[in-house]
Amino acid sequence: MADEAKNQQEEAAAGAEAAAPAEGAPAEGAAPPAAKGISKLYLFGGIGLGVLVVVVGIAMFFLLGNGEKKEEEAHTEVPAIAVLDVPEFTLNLVASDEGAQNFLKAKFAVELANPADAKAVEQYLPRLQDDWGGFLRQMRVDDLQGSAAIQRVKEALLRRANQSLAPLQVKAVYVREMLVQ
Fold it and tell me: Distance of alpha carbon 126 from its chain centroid, rounded?
């Protein structure tokens, strides 16, 4: 019997050695070391991807806005302006040479400070034409050449328009057409 007990102990020890993993070998049911590295890669890659999605979402929210401002901007109205055409002028200019005749053909428009004044300004257009006509007839051809000269004429016409149409206000004078012959 001693032999049998000894055999059983040897078999049990051999079975335990076979069942026990070696020091470097993985246990049963555990993933091999390469599989652990891949799962860590997926874990950190997933976390990195999640953080990237959140950062891009926040950046788009702030850069593109949340849409409420766009709706408000779409509903803002453009302020109304009133631009009235002044009838065309065709008149003689002061001659720089004896016997030479120079003509000016011009179209102007005025922008009113208050669009509600448009009807009242139409009533005063003859007064404005008379005032501007007298001023423009005193001009020479040299007075109308160059962009700086045109700007000075526009400023003078604006000043005269505000004097002629007072208490109504003219905001700007626009040159639609100007031909000097």
Answer: 43
pLDDT at 110: 93
Q: How far apart are CA 110 and CA 35, in angstroms?
A: 82
Residues 167, 121 share a domain: yes
Look at residue 1 and tell me if it is in a domain: no
User: Which of 46-84 are b and which e, b meaning 16 or more Cβ less than 10 Å from the residue's Cβ?
Assistant: eeeeeeeeeeeeeeeeeeeeeeeeeeeeeeeeeeeebeb
CA distance 157 to 173: 7
Q: Are residues 63 and 145 in the same domain?
A: no
For residues 101 and 37, membership in a common domain is answered with no
Question: What pTM does this model have?
Answer: 0.56
Q: What was the pLDDT predicted at 87?
A: 92
